[in-house]
């Protein structure tokens, strides 16, 4: 009897073979992918390793380097933390000091304000006490021996009745002569003590006027004593009596002056200018100098005169006839006096060529 094969085995062999083939193919694919991945690992060249600082280092060296840098970084972080803590403590200490300083300043200010207030109160109390004491003195009735009436508040209608003697009326006047008064006669001579001559007035050893006026009066009295009695002074001497305070000597320089009119010079004929052309010059306050010293209280000056020369040749010179000073208080002073200036002009116009004729002076 012949053995027959089971057809089911035949059917099972085919899937087993196919599964083995698939398993082998899958294993081969995994090996190829692993080889492809190994082949794709990047490599570092020697230049790149030198740039990165890992040339010649093994993985162990690199790991030790990383560990050392990590430890160093931790040490730096710990130091920074300690410094921050110390700075924080110092900041808190400074803040505490500032608070103490503010408290001290505030306390001192309060103490000073209290002291000032106490001093003000004491000063006010002292002033009030003084005022109260004066009021009490004013309201006090004077005794019989007193000779002064109360002044200010506290004066009563009956005060001063003790001044009236027996039989005296209310219209009597008590005259008290000054202690430094000196009795003089009609001629102004002082009377001797105990003289029976009736004095015509009084003189005082000290004048009540201005010190400058007293000095000027003394000089005038001396000048009067030098002149004989009855002799009249000339006009020139009367001019000398004017008080001279500031001087403008000869050859003084008046700089920065402004001409108010044109300088037109006429040619002199035989030393005489017929019909000279007048001119005026305005002088400011900063230029009125006398020997380099400015004249104080002068607002300005106006100079007037006549010009001579040859205008066509630009040769002109002027002769100042008068100079008027204007002061800050409005006072005006002209030199020479207007009357003398008129006489001077008339005499100049009537001049003729002579040996003693005055020459034309330049200005």
UniProtKB/TrEMBL annotation:
Residue spans crossing the bilayer: 12-29
Keyword Transmembrane recorded: yes
Annotated region (Disordered), positions in chain: 34-58, 339-363
Extent of Polar residues compositional bias: 34-48, 344-363
InterPro entries: Integr_conj_element_PFL4705
Alphabetical UniProt keywords: Coiled coil, Membrane, Transmembrane, Transmembrane helix
Coiled coil: 70-122
UniProt protein name: TIGR03752 family integrating conjugative element protein
Organism: Pseudomonas aeruginosa
